[in-house]
Amino acid sequence: MSNTFAVIGGSEAYNLLKSDKLQGERIGRVETPFGDSQAVYKIDGENGSFLFLSRHGEKGYSRTAPYVNYRANIYALKEHGIRQIVSWSGPGAINTEYKIGQYVVVDDLIDETKDREYTFFENKGIGFIRQSPVFCPGLRQSIIDSLKSLKFDYAEGGTYVCTQGPRLETPAEIKKYASFGSDLVGMTLIPEVFLAKELEMCYASICYVTNYAEGIVESEYRPGELFDGLSSDKDRKAVANSVSRFPVIIETLAGNINKHNMNCKCQLSMERYKKNGIIGDDWHEWITS
Fold first, then answer.
1. Backbone φ, ψ for residue 88 (5° rounding)
2. DSSP the chain
3. Tens of pLDDT along 68-87?
């Protein structure tokens, strides 16, 4: 049986690979029209196998969010027959109801990025895709069911504002994002989710809170530390604990993944163009023709 489920690992994914907490076969990079993807792994677990890709690098944090080749990574997973993608991301919290290390299953996005490669369909007349719901409802429910069964602390729902990076945000920017209704601020979910939707793939994300955003709580500037003092020793321990749980979360999710996705509309996002004869069934031709 071919794999239809993949995980895109965020920060610390490379450490899980190096420590063998995620064990599997290295399939390798995929050559795409947009350059090479990050290396793809096949992970075999008790609840079935899935594919895994470390967004920021295979052996370390080698590429910050603005320079991730999102198009190549999504294309590579589609090439491998993937239909559902779960990613993880470690944003900062604007909403003080969230606790450091807590998981958040976000349900909406605000785009504050600039000049990223947002679409597979450059200079074409296709790609007008509705963005509500932003994330696959069935896949989100599978994540929630998995976290609930593991009795891990999580929040259901939240708005993630995606900034350009790699710099962190100013206090005034955080005030602006709070006024927009943002709960979390990070750098990686855009354009990943939109690209997945263009290729008719389900996508949802598990966030874990790494720190409070600039100006939300008083934080002494400490050069040489992670986020220059926005994250305390206690915070880092909580975050490390949350990241260490991702292998068991993913393993549990692999067992739940098909419960809510039987009639998923994510996989019909390009249906209008097919009905009108603008594109055919071969998704490669949507991009290259």
1. -130, 155
2. ----EEEEE-TTHHHHHHTTSS-EEEEE--EEBTEEPPPEEEEEETTEEEEEEETT-SSS--S-GGG--HHHHHHHHHHTT--EEEEEE-PEESSTTS-TT-EEE--EEEEE--S----S-TTSS------SSSS-HHHHHHHHHHHHHHT--EEE--EEEEE--SSPPPHHHHHHHHHTT-SEEESSSTTHHHHHHHTT-EEEEEEE--EEPBTTB-----TTSGGGGTS-HHHHHHHHHHHHTHHHHHHHHHHHTTSS-TT-GGGGTTHHHHHTTSS-S-HHHHHH-
3. 999 999 999 999 999 999 99
CATH number of 5-288: 3.40.50.1580
φ/ψ of residue 179, rounded to 5: -65, -25
DSSP letter at 215 equals: T
Measured CA to CA, the distance from residue 154 to residue 1 in angstroms comes to 32
Helix or strand or coil: residue 12? coil
Tally Cβ neighbours within 10 Å of residue 67. Answer: 12
Q: Which residues pair with 205 in a beta bridge?
A: 87
What Å distances lie between residue 95 and 99, 178, 212, CA to CA? 9, 8, 8
Q: What is the DSSP letter of 60?
A: S
Residue type for position 284: H
Q: What does the pLDDT read at residue 160? A: 99
Give the whole-angstrom CA distance, residue 41 versus residue 16. 12
According to DSSP, the β-strands at 35-36 and 31-32 are antiparallel
Q: Return the SS3 of 201.
A: coil
Summarised one tens digit per residue, pLDDT across range 201-227 is 999 999 999 999 999 988 877 777 767
Token pair 């920060």 in the structure block, residue: 11
Estimate to the nearest angstrom the gap between the alpha carbon of 167 and the chain centroid: 19
Give yes or no for residue 104 having a pLDDT over 60: yes
Helix (H, G, I), strand (E, B) or coil at 139: helix
